[in-house]
Amino acid sequence: MTQTSDGNHLKKIPSPVKFPIVGHLPYVLSRQPFDRMLQLCERYGDLFNLKLLDDSVVIVSDPDVVEELFDESRFRKRVAGILESIRPIAGDGLITAEDHEDNWGRAHRILKLGFGRKAMSDYLPIMMRQTEKLIQWWRDRPGQAIDANQDFTRLTLEIIGLCGFDFSFSSFEQEEPHEFMLTIDSILAEATISHQLPAWVNQLRPGGVRRMKENIEATNAVFDKIIADHHLNDSKERSSFLALMLDAEDPRDGSKLSKANIRYQLITFLIAGHETTRSLLSFTLYYLIKHPEICRKAQSIVDEVLGDAPRDLSFQDLSRLSYLQQILMESLRLWPTAPGFMVSPRSDTSIQSKYSTTTDDIFFIFLAALHRHPKAWGDNPDSFDPDRFGADAIRQRPSHVFRPFGNGKRSCIGQHFAMTEAQVALTYILYHFDLQGDDSYTLQVDHSLTIKPKDFFFKAIPRSK
Ligand code: HEM
After folding, report:
1. Which residue from 60, 66, 127, 212 has the fewest beta carbons nearer than 10 Å?
2. Per-residue pLDDT tens digits for 399-449
3. Nearest protein Cα to ligand 1, atom 1
4. What's the CATH superfamily of 2-462?
5. Domain ranges (residues) in the chain
6. CA of 285 to the centre of ligand 1 (A)
7. What is the whole-number distance in angstroms between the Cα of residue 20 and the centre of ligand 1?
8. What is the torsion angle, in degrees rounded to the nearest 10, for the CA atoms of residue 254, residue 260, residue 266 and residue 269?
């Protein structure tokens, strides 16, 4: 036990009983790791420490502790666990860079321009055209049960490919996923496995390590070609993150991003920018099917804004469709598709003036539990209620209890992009279709880098207008 300057004694962060040698590993090993984490929070509370292999991770969902951890002068983003395992492919790209790495600051300053109002007005038509392709894809398959994750992957992958680097994965031209995405998926699957295993076990899996190396080389080659082709064509003519990165200079010192770093950024956008939004749409449709009254209300607002004939949406239309944003936020509250993020103290310190903590400690802010904490969300936190995101309700609540896009300077650079893309898709879907689910379906959640509803199918019935 240590003592603070004001004489208080500091305790260690509480921890469940450990198993010999393997520590807390058996607590988290499960076919449903995400559900298991929620159960652990119910059982061990909103602040507890788990010793997992080489790392000690503190799982946090108490809003008061979270508020303290969001103080960026005391805590910094931590690149550990799965983020560390994807460093070989994402390098010092935005999501896997440490705060102090030069390229984080440089890329952040340059890429911020790529998410401003002007850039978004270039992306909006791409989002609409790709959503129209999805609508047509469903019209061409009448009565077919739609695999939500699969079809929303088509949409979000096309949007990030076209807006990011002017590249189509031909998702609406073929049933099967693009070969290149299979390579990326295989890298992510290997990263997920390897970060769950001790280093010495990974050394006994030379096949996995070799496959990972080959897949990374293949991915790098594809992106190097995309960058070279873009460079040859006049990139000034195009609006994409890639064109921006090739042209723009860091406003601070006039430097540019290196080709290798540009590649890391593109891979980062691909990884960070499609699964999260895909799953947001899947969870949202799940809830709309479960709550037909909310779905009908949203449809009537969409009908009023769009009128008798489908047409392009303007930003003004999108602000009139704010109820759809409320629906999306409520879905992100219950199932934050990036389920958490990690921070560490900048120097040895105390938490809540009660627990001692050092710079080695990793705090995992477990969003699904924070977003349902009764201290912040009342007696019925599991219920789906978009009115929680009405303007007055938001004003009355502290902002740190809802952080699906992370915190502070390391929060999601693509959040406005993602919400616009999801809002456009939801608008056109509700305008064109009634949604029909399978009454026997029970929600289960699959967990890799992101979370998604498992085996969720629905039918899209064309609306008679
Ligand atoms: C619903 C969709 C999305 C969710 C829930 C989400 C969530 C998050 C979260 C929680 C973080 C912080 C990670 C951390 O602290 O370790 C983050 C960072 C990031 N996201 Fe997103 N994201 C979404 C969509 C997107 C999209 C569409 C893009 C790209 C177009 C994107 C690009 C990034 C990048 C580059 C970062 C790293 C920012 C930095 O550290 O400078 N995300 N995202």
Report:
1. 212
2. 999 999 999 999 999 999 999 999 999 999 999 999 999 999 999 998 878
3. 277
4. Cytochrome P450 (1.10.630.10)
5. 2-462
6. 22
7. 37
8. -80
